[in-house]
Amino acid sequence: MSGGAQRVSVVIPSYGQGEMLRACLASILEGAPDLDLDVWVVDSSPRDVSPLLQDFLTDPRLHLVRSERRLFPGAARDLGIRSSKGDTVVFIDCDCAAGPGWPRELVEGLERDPGLAACGGGVENGTPRSYWGTAEYLSEFGHFTPRSPARRRRFVPTCNMALRRSDYFEAGGLKADMETGEDVALGRSFLNMGRDIGFIPQALVYHFNRTEAPGFLRNQYRIGRGSARNFLDGNQPYSAWGRRPAGRFLLAAAAGPLRFLRVLGRALAQGELPPARLAALLPGLLLGAACFWAGYLSAFLRPQG
Q1: Residue 242 pLDDT
Q2: Is residue 77 scored above 60 in pLDDT?
């Protein structure tokens, strides 16, 4: 990629983050000086974060967009992409730090392959010493670690994603009413357009996971609700099962055990942890799968949106 040849807009949704947001911004603004970047923080926190970012806001590349009402991440990203100008847009979360050279490899991946509507990068564990942080990492990002193979995907996580602005709007954008799972829905929209989604494991961000049990378990519950919403909306490969009541019942009944087995299977296949440490994590992974299951079932009884 010829540095500065095109504008790249980085969009960061933010809610209730302080030092993590500062660390995220520092990693981006200092990490790719040869790129023509602008960075858009979309914040919907109860308190204005501009005093916290005062030293960063002297950088002309940084823009802060405030919302007076709480926004789900998809809605915040959508507001950011509509505010920005780059033909290529990159998403990262405020609880992440960009790896060396990010997001150059994502942008170059899009340029190399015109068939791609989006590509994503590897997510590394930013809390490797934390029991609950590692349980969350394996539960949420086990199929997008740097040890995962480079290949086409159904979706990539929005904490490390690059896409073309034109494709984003053609796909209808991110769903503003989804608390989680909006990346899966966007991926389905791209595939329905006949476009592909790539995965580049070496394009790294570090994700700083929840390190306390209550936060981890609440998040797994929310992820379960988002997964069920995508199933009901037809965004999952197995959504055809939902056309019949029996299929919906069987999938809902199996969602928790399947979640646990998939998380564990990925960790074993990719050698994410030594066997003894993975064995010690089994109770936490089981609890996480149980909360995912509870959220999944609740979405059938009390749907979102």
Answers
A1: 66
A2: yes
Strand partners, 90: 10, 162
pLDDT tens digits for range 20-68: 999 999 999 887 767 889 999 999 998 888 888 999 999 999 999 999 8
Contact in structure between 109 and 119 (CB atoms under 8 Å): yes
Tell me the C-alpha distance between 242 and 206, whole Å.
36
Question: What are φ and ψ of residue 243, in 5° steps?
Answer: -70, -20
What is the C-alpha to C-alpha distance for residues 83 and 93, in angstroms, rounded to an integer? 17
Q: Is the pLDDT score of 1 beyond 60?
A: no
Cis peptide leading into residue 114 (ω within 30°): no
Reported pTM: 0.92
- Judge whether 238 and 250 are in contact, CB under 8 Å: no
7-210 CATH pick, 3.60.15.10, 3.40.50.1820, 3.40.720.10, 3.90.550.10? 3.90.550.10
Looking at the predicted structure, is the pLDDT value of residue 305 above 50?
no
Q: Give the residue among 134, 121, 300, 120 at the shortest CA–CA distance from 228.
A: 300
Nearest residue to 13 via CA among 85, 86, 67: 67
Does the structure show a pLDDT above 60 at 157? yes
116 forms bridges with which residues in the sheet? 196
Helix extents (H) in 177-244: 182-192, 213-232
Question: How far from 215 is each of 21, 145, 147, 169, 288, CA to CA, in Å?
Answer: 18, 22, 26, 33, 11
**Which residues sit opposite 62 in a β-bridge?**
39
The residue extents of the domains of the chain are 7-210, 214-301
Q: Order of strands, edge to edge, in the sheet holding 7-14?
A: 62-66, 36-43, 7-14, 88-92, 160-164, 116-125, 196-207, 96-98
Question: How long a stretch of residues is the chain?
Answer: 305
pLDDT at 17: 76
d(CA 136, CA 285): 8
